[in-house]
Amino acid sequence: MTIEVRTGERVDVVDVTSRVEGAVPDETRHGICTVYVPHTTAGVVVNEREERLLSDVENALERLVPRGEGYEHDAIDDNADAHLRAMLLGESVTVPIVDGNLALGTWQSILFVECDGPRTRRIRVATVPR
Ligand code: ZN
């Protein structure tokens, strides 16, 4: 199943938890759910959706991989920082499915992290029953 995500900023964090949960087939009571981002300048993580923390994420990415630091790839399309940030974030997360629900911790959400927006992105959700 594919979920479409629209991002509004160059760096943007979008909570996709409820949409991923909606993509888990009703017949999958127990198993695993993998959320995969088929892009090279975006990532996905599991963490807390707290507004100040999401702002901290954006600031931390800027500090860790500042834009325009003379990267070789910038000569092609000026977004090397976005590729490098996406590599740090990772392109997939896997969440257990228990009793038909994503078995996330109390403070955990599935967060899509845009690194080169705004764009319309796709997320693939694959479930494997146990
Ligand atoms: Zn590029």
Structural description of this entry:
- The chain has one domain: Sandwich (Jelly Rolls).
- The model has no long low-confidence stretch (mean pLDDT 97).
- The chain has helices at 17-23, 51-64, 74-77, 80-89; strands at residues 2-6, 12-15, 31-36, 42-47, 92-98, 101-102, 109-114, 120-129.
- Helices cover 27% and strands 35% of the residues.
- It is an alpha+beta fold and 130 residues long.
- The strands form two sheets. A five-stranded antiparallel β-sheet has the order 1-8-3-5-6, covered by helices on one side.
- The chain contains four helices and eight strands; from the N terminus they run ββαββαααββββ.
- It is elongated and about 50 Å long.
- Zinc ion (ZN) binds next to loops.
- The site of zinc ion has 4 residues, from loops.
Question: What value does the Rg take, in angstroms?
Answer: 15 Å
CATH architecture: Sandwich
Residues in helices, as a percent range: 25-40%
CATH topology: Jelly Rolls
As a percent range, the share of strand residues is 35-45%
Small-molecule components bound: zinc ion
Q: Give the helix/strand class.
A: alpha+beta
- N-to-C order of helices and strands: EEHEEHHHEEEE
The strand order across the widest sheet is 1-8-3-5-6
- Average of pLDDT: 97
Number of strands: 8
The total number of structural domains is 1
CATH C-level class is: Mainly Beta
Silhouette: elongated
User: Whole-Å distance between the termini?
Assistant: 19 Å
What about the largest sheet?
A: 5 strands, antiparallel
Regions with little confidence, pLDDT below 50 for 5+ residues: none
Question: Helix count?
Answer: 4
